[in-house]
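To close the chapter, one final illustration. This time we ask the reader to focus less on the individual chains and more on the assembly as a whole: which components sit near each other, and how the overall shape emerges from the parts.
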Amino acid sequence: MPEPVGAMPATGTGGSIGRIAWRLRPVFLFAALAALPYLLSYSQQEIAVLLVINVLLVSSYRLLTLTGEWSLGHVVIMGVGAYASALLAKQAGVPVPLSMLLGGCMAAAVAALLSFPLFRMKGFYFLIGSFAAGEIIRLIWKRFTDPFGGPKGLKRIEPFPDIETGFLSIDFYEPVNYYFLALVVVSASLFVLYRIERSRIGLTFHAIHWQDRLAESVGVDTFRYRTLAFVIASFFAGIAGGLYAHYIGAVNPTRFSVDQMVYVLVWAIVGGTATFHGPILGVVVLTVINEIVLRALGLDTARPLIYGAILILSVLYLPNGLESLGPRLRALWQRRRGGSAAAGSEPA
Amino acid sequence: MSVHGERPILEARGLTRRFGGLVAVDNFSFSVHEGAIHGLIGPNGAGKTTTFNVISGFYAPTAGRVFFRGLDISGRKTSALAAMGLVRTFQGSTLFQEFSVLDNVRVGRHLGARAGFLSRLIGTDRLSEREADAKARETLAFFELEELAGEPVSNLPHGHQRMLGMAVALAAEPKVLLLDEPFTGMNPEETRRMMALVRRIRDRGVTVMLVEHDMQAVMNLCDTITVMNFGALLVEGAPEAVRNDPAVIEAYLGSATGNGAGDAA
Amino acid sequence: MDLLWQTAVNATYAASYMALIAVGLVMIFGVMGVINFAHGELYMVGAYCVVFLYAQENFPFLLAVAAGLVFVGIVGIVMERTMFRPLRDNPLGGLIASIGFLLILQTLVVFGFGRRMGHVPPSTHGKIEFFGAVLTYQRLFVIVAAILLLAALWAFLRRSKFGRALRACAQDTEAASLQGISMNQTARIAMFIGAGLAGVAGALTAPLVSPTPYIGHSIIVTAFIIIIVGGVGSLEGAVIAAVLYAFVHTFVTTFFDGVIANIVGLALMLSVLVVRPTGLFGARERA
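The assembled structure is written out below.
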């Protein structure tokens, strides 16, 4: 696009500062995330911990949707991780960080087992099948009081152990400290999820989504890759479950019911699943709306109603999610700006 | 038998496929020899596409067997067949429409670009990926599509999409390539170019078997032609012999609607 | 022996209302290709029509039931117009929108009636006894109503112009519209009937179940099991599967417990999905 000659130097410097800022994005992001808990009240800090855990839950869910399959059992799988980690810590005396990891492995193992019946189905049948499988697991927790605690679930789950060395002492009962713990675990997990998507494995997942028969014809074992996506997604959901269980200290079957799954769906769909950051955007924006706006207005009971309305409206009017809003607004803004493109770089 | 003399690279014996009460393929046998361009033709509804789908592993045969390089492959998964060197294409423009041209062919390199899960994660698969990229570009160059590597597939004209479909299959380095109606819907000029490409693919050492309605193209291109009718073998032989066979003429005239313009069987 | 016989009578009652719900769900799926996740909440709203009109405002029970049918049918039309019509080419979107709608219905009922169980006094106190089994009039009423309604629906679909249109739309939307069948009109009627059947099932059983705003969950699980076992597009399959499932569920509940019965039901559904996704009574494999 042709620009007025006079504007060139300004654009140049503005551009380079902008570019450096752009490069330093992760630094800013981490600074903001590190400062965040100190700007919040105690109860808001607790919400921030859950938000970080939910980011992992919804991001792992997205990995599964890359192959084109939508599950209704993801929250139950998170519960498998939570129950397994809690039971390992309570009954087998496994130290908590290790139990969380094993909880993730347990969730992955359950997913591997479930993939045999479930991946004989596709689309709507997979959705309903995953729902049925999840309900069966939940009913097993409910029915068998030993070891799952029945409808009341497990209580007094071992907390994350405090770190006590000579000069460093961290008590993870404090939400701020648990926030940082969760942040580290979730960031590492997101990094792994991101790497998987950017690798050939991610390309293959997408290929299966768009044309599974064509992918098969060049040697892609679609069953194996669907299973792989399901297992990886479930592992990280299980890790999220472990983080949850040892933070709250209690789990029960209702906590992992399909109602909770609805929230994951809302986050993913409102955010948009086409990009890595879409679902994260969804869960962050909706949690902020939920906790700040709704709480301030005293509309707590209306929460499901508002979530329901948002879900319907976004399916109807924002089918590609919030992530598509940015480019759309930018296009609109540029169109309204018309030819005066040089003005765009003025803020620098 | 035929000029090629050796053992067939692909062979069907007594192949049968039923759908409920309907017999789509009925005790059908054929053999394809290494290095050949082998045509499978027949009037609409003769069972060509079903035969193709059985050979390529989308359906298991109800009865009978398929042999590939002497091995019984009946009922094996499509992906396993691809790994053995038997790769098919699809009718029309079945592609990863949301991907770039290059990424389509990169998926075609699935089998060639092996790496463990961990090495994908930490990026030590870079070497095999670079190789896969180079192979993919080379395949694109073979089809004279290399300049379009970065384009989204949906921007490509129809004829290019058909070639890309073949490029994806060829990237998997097949020994036998099954082409599903490669000329349907093409104008004479495009057909001529496509025929030249099929010959060049064969010259690279790939055996080609194709299902086609366009009699003219098949007659000029193929070394051997198998004609099927009502799910069963009618005639197999060299183009000249097949063209003048009364049974073939009868079958094509009998189906009245004519060939060429017909849609999918 | 008495217990067996009594359980069979109980299962017959369960089969009746389950068939109403499942047939409604299949009807909606047949025409619109959408699985209505809010179907359990339509049942719940029907039940609350009786809570409001009959238990709170003292209207006659039958009138309240009729109102439940019509009101929930209208809710169905609203769903069709606002969600399923604009999302006609997007079945997954329709399903997800119906999940949103489910949350809205639940919350509205909580606002109106609270979270606690609504108490509905029985409309009759009589019962009949035969061969040692007891059947209350309240339950008998559900059985009779279900038979009448389903028979009426069957006759309606057989005889009316709408029935033909409905079958045409279920088979091939495009061909149907070429024959001059209005897709919108057909969808509206199907939605009214489908939702109305769920509503009337809720209304009829309200005195027997003590409804809560969250009762829809167990209803939709039941309905899913039935339509999967019966074969997703088949009305007859839904009725047969409702009877089958009601007997399995009632017997397992009586001789083991309710949770085991639910596990058995879900496992049954999962195995049908794996072995025969078209359902036990659905269409056979196609070419």
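The longest helix of chain A spans residues 222-248. The CA atoms of residues 185 and 287 of chain A lie 20 Å apart. With these observations in hand, you are ready for the problems at the end of the chapter.
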